[in-house]
Amino acid sequence: MEGSSSTSQRCQNDDKFANASSSSSSFVNENGAPGSTSEEGGSIYIDPARDIDIAPCLDFCCGYLPCCCCLYSYVPAAVGGDDDDEWIDYGPGCFRGGEVIMQETEVDGEDGARTSERAMLKVRNAFPVNRNVMLTLIISLLHGIADSLWNGTVLYAYLFIVFGQRNDYIGYMEALMGLSAVLFSFFPVGYLAEKWSKSGTIKIGAFMFVTGAALNTWLVEWVGIDDLTKDHGGIPTFDTSRSQQIFNYYLPLMAVWGFASSIINGPALELYTASIQQKDHPSYFFVYFATYRIASTIGPLVSIIIFSTMGNTWDLETLRVNIFVGMGIELVVGIFCFAYRDAWALEKEDEEEENEEDSDNASGEEEGEERGKKRREVSHTEGEEPVFSNGDLTTPLLPPKEQHEQQQEESRTDAEEGLSLPGRSSCNLLCFTLRAEHVPYVLFISSFITAAGGGMTIKFFPLYFIVDVHFTPNAIQGMYVLIPFLQVVSTEIMNSVSSCLGRVQTILFTKILGILFIVMIANGEDWLENKGFPLALLFVLRSVLMNSTLPLEQSVLMDFADDEQCRRWKYLDQCVSAIWAGSSAIGGWLIDQHDYSYTFKITAYLQGGGVFFLLFLLPFVPRQKSAPIDSIDNEGEESISSQLSNEEEDSIGEIL
Fold first, then answer.
1. Parallel/antiparallel/unpaired status of strands 86-89 and 100-103
2. Phi/psi class of residue 427: alpha, beta or left (left: φ > 0; alpha: ψ in -120 to 50)?
3. 317-341 residue pLDDT tens
4. 3-state per-residue secondary structure call for 49-74
5. d(CA 63, CA 55)
6. Closest by alpha carbon to 178, among 463, 444, 577?
7. Looking at residue 72, what is its pLDDT?
8. Contacting residues for 45 by C-beta, under 8 A, at least 6 apart
9. Burial of 450 by CB count in 10 Å (0-12 exposed, 13-18 middle, 19+ buried)?
10. Do the beta carbons of residue 495 and residue 555 sit within 8 Å?
């Protein structure tokens, strides 16, 4: 017999089935909302006011895959009744959140009527997702597709033509768009989201998306294609007499797009976070960033399809079609932004209930801390000084007052010998004493200088491949299809390498290799006879490597800063984004004054200076994160001092 949602189902709460158990089933709670029961017996409710069940969609899209077996469960039930009044008892709770897919047994009575009998039913489980979360993932997908479709190679090529092949105008526009996104994220977007309403602020951003799409479409149509004057190097050139006027119209439009971007990366992401239980943050943020990564590859693929059907040339009409398609998707993004609701976010009481189990473990943690204190008191022999630690070698603490003078003497001795060892709290550099609390500042300075160099050229690489290397549209878009996938793979590889080589060592190696590649690109004409494919390979590898160590850099920051300091440095990251955006104006001007290769060399010099500052982190960040002393068992316990000795021997050569 095949069960379906159309089958008349009557809940039977007979005592005979009161003890039946279901390992993973869906049910209806007291308010009539469906939910699911986990193997541990805990209940996960679906709140119809703020949750939606995406199980049918998952079943349709990927239910046939082996990894999706979690969508289904086999539960004990009972079947009874006659042909006119058949019923299925789902066991305790009388759940209806899952659909009966299959009934494996059927028993007929002597009179031909169906009798009550236990059966195993294949049930599709409920999969609740908060509505704000679902909206954000959809918007992330659509915005990622649109942004990578029109706001990249296509836009730069289009503006390069209509601006009369001027790079400085493109740099000024990109700088304005990036700086406006950073500034608007503080005020008014950040202020309104905090003081007024996140969903209300997002609705203002939705209006900006709709306005930006409409204005951009009108402006591209107004520019037209009638003023193409000549073909220079395979690239059409526009009448330069209109370039200044077109540039003046595009400036406020870029500010509108900057405001819209601040909404996506500001209150929309905050509301996404507020709609997720804290324990689910890592998995949902992985889904969020994975969605955007996938979308950033779909955009270039759509562009490849458009270019392929229209000749695969840098024709102004083809570029216009790409922009129009992108504007259509951005318009849909704006419409979806109107649907956000503050009421769908989780309330603080919900978060407190979820964290009750964590508070129950507080007493156990206190006992562990007491054990750690006792170990520290007995981990030294008579006549030796005890080693004090906060349980994490990456954030060493100063010992008590009576040990402070001794440690200062050790630091001075190390400095005189010309080395500083991992785990120490200070490092003497000429006339300046670098301490562990300075590590976040060093990271910020390095990121600031590196971003200044990268922002000068990253926007102009597509134009370099168009003008100097004479790549076709599909060739350039193909590179941008590969880069996001390779970045994901490279990030995982670097995380694995860092466990053996060390985090700072891995970051240094990767950054230096990326800088070497951009130097090779800048000098490609001197050593490459057929420079097309080698330069493309170098660019892809350089883009992947320079962005694959961000998780490692964040982990170092979190080791040397508490939660409040981490929030402060997150705000300072906006300054890094601002300098990254603003430096594109300098890059465009330098390209017009010299050429692309000259600007690439300036980028290499600046990024090399940023990497130089990372050398100062070697004395403070050990190769591997050691286990906290409180978590080490008494049997076979290794002292902190011996761990530091091993770290010192491994790192002396690198520090020198």
1. unpaired
2. beta
3. 999 999 999 999 999 999 999 999 9
4. CCEEECHHHHHHHHCCCHHHHHHEEE
5. 9
6. 577
7. 67
8. 29, 33, 35, 128
9. buried
10. no
Q: Which of 119, 46, 48 is nearest to 81 (CA)?
A: 119
Distance (Å, rounded) from C-alpha 202 to C-alpha 153? 28
Compute the residue count for the chain: 656
DSSP state of 232: E
8 Å CB contact between 607 and 449? yes
- Return the ∠ at Cα 505 (arms to 504 and 510), rounded to 5°: 100
What's the rounded Cα separation, in Å, for the pair 590 and 442? 28
> What distance in Å separates the CA atoms of residue 479 and residue 348, rounded to the nearest whole number?
45
**Cα–Cα distance for residue pair 205/212, rounded to 1 Å:** 10
Distance CA 545, CA 537 (A): 12
State the helix-helix crossing angle for 316-337 and 198-223, rounded to 10 degrees.
160
DSSP 8-state class, residue 508? H
Cα distance between residue 495 and residue 487, in whole Å? 12
At 51, is the secondary structure helix, strand, or coil?
Answer: strand
CA separation for the pair 298, 325 (Å, rounded): 13
* Helix or strand run (H / E) with residue 496: helix 473-501
> Which DSSP symbol is given to 147?
H
Query: What is the DSSP-derived secondary structure letter of residue 14?
Result: -
Q: Identify the residue whose tokens are 């990497």.
A: 611
Instruction: Judge contact between 553 and 570, C-beta under 8 A.
Output: no
Q: Which of 40, 113, 31 is nearest to 80 (CA)?
A: 113
8 A C-beta contact, residue 23 and residue 75: yes
Place of tokens 């793979």: 489
How far apart CA 347 and CA 248 sit, in angstroms, is 46
Angle, to 10 degrees, between the axis of helix 563-593 and the axis of helix 596-614? 160
pTM for the full predicted model:
0.74
Which tokens sit at 403? 């040990």
Answer yes or no: are the C-beta atoms of 249 and 219 closer than 8 Å: yes
Which residues have CB under 8 Å from 255's CB, separation 6+? 176, 177, 180
Burial of 277 (0-12, 13-18, 19+ CB in 10 A): middle
Q: How confident is the model at residue 211 (pLDDT cuts 50, 70, 90)?
A: very high
Alpha-carbon separation of residue 652 from 261, 433, 506 (angstroms) = 46, 19, 17
Long-range contacts of 374-380 (CB under 8 A, 24+ apart): 375/629, 375/630, 375/632, 375/634, 375/637, 376/629, 379/637, 379/639, 379/640, 380/639
DSSP state of 112: S
Strand 128-130 and strand 228-232: the pairing is: unpaired
Show the beta-strand stretches assigned E in 407-524. 426-429, 432-435
Kindly report the number of other CB atoms within 10 A of residue 245's CB atom: 10
Would you give the end-to-end CA distance of the chain in angstroms?
Answer: 77
Helices 198-223 and 243-264: crossing angle in degrees, nearest 10, is 160
Instruction: State both tokens at 222.
Output: 């107004």
**pLDDT, tens digit (0-9, with 9 covering 90-100), for 577-608:** 888 889 999 999 999 999 999 999 999 999 99
d(CA 218, CA 216): 5
